[in-house]
Amino acid sequence: MAYTTGSFKTTDAIGNREDLSDVIYNISPTETPFMSMIAGKGKAKATYHEWQIDALAAAGINSVVEGNDAVYSTSTPTTRVGNRTQISEKLVSVTGTQEAVDKAGRNSEYRYQLALRGQEIKRDMEFGLTGNYASSAGSGSVPRRLGSLEAWFETNSQRSATNGADGGFSGGNVAAATDETAGGLRTITEAMLKTAMQQAWTSGGKPEYVLCGPVNKQKISAFAGIATLYRDTGSQMKQASIMGAADVYVSDFGQVKIIPSRFSRERTVTVLDPTYWEVGYLRPFKQQELAKTGDAMKGMLNVEYTLVSKNEAASAVIADLLTS
User: Fold this and answer.
1) Using an 8 Å Cβ cutoff, are 277 and 262 in contact?
2) Distance in angstroms (rounded) separating the CA atoms of residues 294 and 284
3) Whole-angstrom Cα distance, residue 97 to residue 113?
4) Kind and range of the H or E run holding 174
């Protein structure tokens, strides 16, 4: 098109205001499915948090003769287990100038950065709680570490026969499981999931969830035992919508929801009874301002917590799986 000679263009102008949206778009995921599904908040009162587990005697034929004299058997004592608390923290420092200037998308840089750090800590907690990490008492130079989900399993586990081995609680600490080398990893099968469900149910658990990474979520979606790929979209819509994901798996021992996780390890699938897991807090989330040492606002957000495995036998693990 022809240009009108002498027209004043935006490329000639000085002082046009910038067009910057007041919305900040953040795609980083913040879902924490494991912490959301388990029983809830517990209370720890020491850096080494302990509890007891027990089990009933095996069922059997219980009959005695008429007039039988009482014969007592020695009761089995409870088992005392525990886990270490772990401190997670995030720090923020914002200059006085940055706090004062006019900003797009937030009024206070300091409060905005604190909110981001809070989301990051929750992601870190989910990552650490669901992984395969041993507990550690720590030292003056080494932080305490909690024993995580994968490390607790020693009753109901399916691992590669080559190098995979259970961890579990022993001698006051939780040992990490031994990971299989890359050459011994397997593809998850429906038979594995059925076995895990049966193991947890036979031990006394009532599994409600299967926690897995995105690759194994898609593989599980192809299993024959998936209840349906249809979901009701509401009373005003007569036709159901077809879903491309398996949300519910129906087994002989009940149905479980298949929950994908961005932060649990892809090589492991856990079948969980959430009533037997809990996060115990020695110090709940706290935000506090730190002393000024210059022209900056300084703050810290921290939390001290541990994973409570009330009885790992109520759940099951399928480990040493292919990640692609």
Assistant:
1) no
2) 29
3) 15
4) strand 173-175
Closest among 81, 83, 82, 88 to 128, alpha carbons compared: 88
Task: Write the single-letter amino acid at 142.
Answer: V
The closest alpha carbon to 133, from 152, 120, 154, belongs to 152
Tens of pLDDT, residues 151-207 = 999 999 999 987 789 999 999 999 999 999 988 999 999 999 999 999 999 999 999
pLDDT in tens, 139-155: 999 999 999 999 999 99
**Alpha-carbon gap, residue 45 to 82, rounded angstroms:** 12
Task: Kindly calculate the radius of gyration of the chain based on its CA atoms and give it in whole angstroms.
Answer: 27
Count of other CB atoms within 10 angstroms of residue 293: 8
| Long-range Cβ pairs for the range 58-62 (8 Å, 24+) | none
Q: What is the pLDDT of residue 236?
A: 52
Q: Rounded distance, CA 320 to CA 324, Å? A: 12
